[in-house]
């Protein structure tokens, strides 16, 4: 630094320009990570396939153009009170499967789950071309059982799949109850009668891979009122 | 507010762009490619205290002259952001989910003296 050049406001010696840049870049990184509640930048194990990502973004846009807030859930754009909002797109991970059922897992990061509340969450399932006539499918939402190794069923929906295409299911309450847990992971079980084919695409890279879209909002900071 | 020029000494807004590729974050931040963080720098002598930036009206300038004349406690004030904008980010979290969020108050739009 030039001799005796000090910051007039705080008295700290002025930084050499090169060092100033490094300090500012470090400040920018620290500021972004802090606001995203991330201890460090995330390492991406395997990003979703481009096809699945583009299809999901298209579906979300189509759904938003005619969606209405689900009853019982806070409408997505309720008075935001200036709180930071998140939109999370989570693609399914394949779980265990049998000849007539398949498990899909959807993980949510601790950082987001720990600091937000769910406004809305929707499960998107694409049915490949079912056989002639309606195909019965049972969709169960499972959660880890805190007292034992099994999973507990939190909701069950029976669908009659008439033709191939996307179906959506409101999973808001299930995801909301997950957000308070140690491992925020939603498990979906799809079951068809014996002899029927699995209704969802078989491989991960298929652009019609199941996904969940969740809208969350930062929790209002806990205010302690002193009298 | 005022943008800093080459020889600005008074309180102004200094442009500063953070290129995510330069800091090796382009693999987990999908959009944007960087962001205009900007920051405030410069002097805030007593008679400039309390005005947004330097674009002060005539009335404020007269008031400042009076303040400077009184110079009760001849201390400088600080050059701080007076207007900021959110930063919209689309990024992968560590479970490879895609998250979109608007982080409030991340981009400094203008500066002024406290």
Describe this structure in words.
- The complex is a heterodimer of chains A (227) and B (114).
- With 227 residues, chain A is α+β, with helices and mostly antiparallel strands.
- Chain A has helices spanning 17-35, 50-65, 110-115, 172-178, and strands at 85-91, 93-97, 101-107, 116-127, 135-144, 151-161, 165-170, 185-191, 211-218.
- Chain A has a 5-stranded antiparallel sheet with strand order 2-3-8-5-6. A 4-stranded antiparallel sheet of chain A has the order 1-9-4-7.
- In chain A, a hairpin with a 6-residue loop joins strand 5 (135-144) and strand 6.
- Chain A is elongated, with a radius of gyration of 23 Å.
- The relative contact order of chain A is 0.21.
- The model of chain A is unreliable at 68-80 (pLDDT under 50).
- Chain B has a 3-stranded antiparallel sheet, with no helix packed on it. In chain B, strands 1-5 form a two-stranded antiparallel ribbon.
- In chain B, strand 6 (79-92) and strand 7 form a beta hairpin.
- Strand 1 (85-91) of chain A pairs antiparallel with strand 7 of chain B.
């Amino acid at each position: 630094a030039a001799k005796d050049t000090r910051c007039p406001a705080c008295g700290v010696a002025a930084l050499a320009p090169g060092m100033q840049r490094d300090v500012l870049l470090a400040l920018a990184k620290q500021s972004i990570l802090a606001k995203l509640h991330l201890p460090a930048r995330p390492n991406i194990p395997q990003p979703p396939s481009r096809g699945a990502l583009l299809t999901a973004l298209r579906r979300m846009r189509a759904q938003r153009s005619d969606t209405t807030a689900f009853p019982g859930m806070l409408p997505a754009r309720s008075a935001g009170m200036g709180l930071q909002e998140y939109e999370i797109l989570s693609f399914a991970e394949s779980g265990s499967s049998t000849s007539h059922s398949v498990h899909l897992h959807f993980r949510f990061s601790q950082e987001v789950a720990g600091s937000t509340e769910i406004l809305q969450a929707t499960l998107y399932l694409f049915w490949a071309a079912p056989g002639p006539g309606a195909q019965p499918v049972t969709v169960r939402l499972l959660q880890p059982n805190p007292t034992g190794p099994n999973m507990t069923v939190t909701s069950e929906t029976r669908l009659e799949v008439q033709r191939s295409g996307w179906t959506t299911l409101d999973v808001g309450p299930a995801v909301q109850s997950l957000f308070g847990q140690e491992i925020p992971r939603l498990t979906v079980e799809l079951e068809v009668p014996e002899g029927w084919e699995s209704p969802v695409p078989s491989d991960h890279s298929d652009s019609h891979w199941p996904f969940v879209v969740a809208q969350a909002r930062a929790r209002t900071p806990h205010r302690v009122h002193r009298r | 507010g005022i943008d800093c020029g080459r020889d600005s000494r008074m309180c102004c807004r200094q442009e500063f762009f953070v290129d995510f590729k330069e800091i090796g974050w382009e693999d987990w931040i999908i959009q944007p490619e960087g962001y205009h963080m900007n920051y405030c720098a410069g002097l805030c002598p007593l008679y400039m205290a309390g005005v947004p930036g330097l674009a002060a009206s005539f009335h404020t300038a007269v008031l400042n002259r009076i303040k400077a004349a009184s110079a009760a406690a001849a201390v400088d004030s600080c050059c701080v952001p007076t207007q900021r904008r959110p930063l919209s980010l689309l990024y992968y979290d560590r479970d490879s989910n895609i998250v979109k969020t608007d982080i409030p108050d991340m981009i400094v739009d203008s500066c002024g003296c406290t």
